[in-house]
Specification:
The protein has a single domain (8-136), classed as 3-Layer(aba) Sandwich (Rossmann fold). The protein is 45% helix and 14% strand. It has 146 residues and is α/β, with parallel strands linked by helices. It starts with 7 loop residues before the first helix and ends in a 10-residue tail after the last strand. Helix 2 links the parallel strand 1 and strand 2. The chain contains four helices and four strands, in the order αβαβαβαβ.
Length: 146
Amino acid sequence: MVTNERPADAADALSDQLPGIYDRYAADVGGRRLTSITERRGPEHAFAFGYLRTTPETPPSRHHAYAEELEYAECDVVRTERAFGDDLTPGFHDLLRHIRPGDTLLVPRRAHLSSSPAASAEAVALVEARGGRVKFLHHNEPGSSV
């Protein structure tokens, strides 16, 4: 008897890999789109960049809800990623290199920069050093003074 069924563990392994594959694809496409958009803007046009970082354990519905908040805030470009850890990500640094004086980085919550308060403060300082500013959409949460 021949069956076309794959073993359950192979299907589980593939479904476990899909979020990572999608995140790598989204980061690559997002990075190229970001470069294309920012290269075409005029020198006097200030941008509103949206940034969202959640952990891979964050439910997709919650991740997408935060991303929609950034879109409703009328960001010119929204960069989202999923990452563990306290360090600032390569995706954040890629976005940072496009920030010019007068630009704004909108973030839903301080924790969406990094789970580390020190790294979040570093992110704000890096944006400000480039002449931009950071605005948290949920600014009334404890520890969000910016």
